[in-house]
Amino acid sequence: ASIGVQSAASPSIDPIQLHVQVVNNLARCKALILADEPMYLFAIQQLEAALGETLFIRHSRKVALTPLGWR
């Protein structure tokens, strides 16, 4: 059988293990969504520093993408 395709001889997927994998992935996604804003700001600043370019124009309470940020 090819990789990623189960044949009749291969064991079936354990539904409990599959459920655990889904819950773990959902927990990771939730952690990313709920991450603190300073973490994102730090990551953006690091990316801009590495590129040597500004990706966002920051105003008092608004943020807009620069042309490079749109690419």
Provide tags for this entry.
elongated, single chain, 71 residues, 54% helix, two-stranded antiparallel ribbon, mainly alpha, 2 strands
Describe the structure.
This protein has 71 residues and is mainly alpha-helical. The protein has three helices and two strands, in the order H-H-E-E-H. It has helices at residues 15-33, 37-51, 67-70; strands at residues 56-58, 63-65. The longest helix has 19 residues, at 15-33. The radius of gyration is 21 Å and the shape is elongated. The mean pLDDT is 75.
> What is the first-to-last residue Cα distance?
42 Å
List the strand order in the largest sheet. Answer: 1-2
What is the helix fraction of residues, given as a range?
40-55%
Number of helices: 3
Number of strands: 2
Mean pLDDT: 75
Characterize the largest beta sheet: strand count, sense, and whether it forms a barrel: 2 strands, antiparallel
Shape: elongated
> Could you name the ranges where pLDDT drops below 50 across 5 or more consecutive residues?
none
Structural class: mainly alpha
Rounded to the nearest angstrom, the radius of gyration is: 21 Å
Strand residue percentage = 5-15%
Oligomer: single chain
Along the chain, the helix and strand elements come as HHEEH
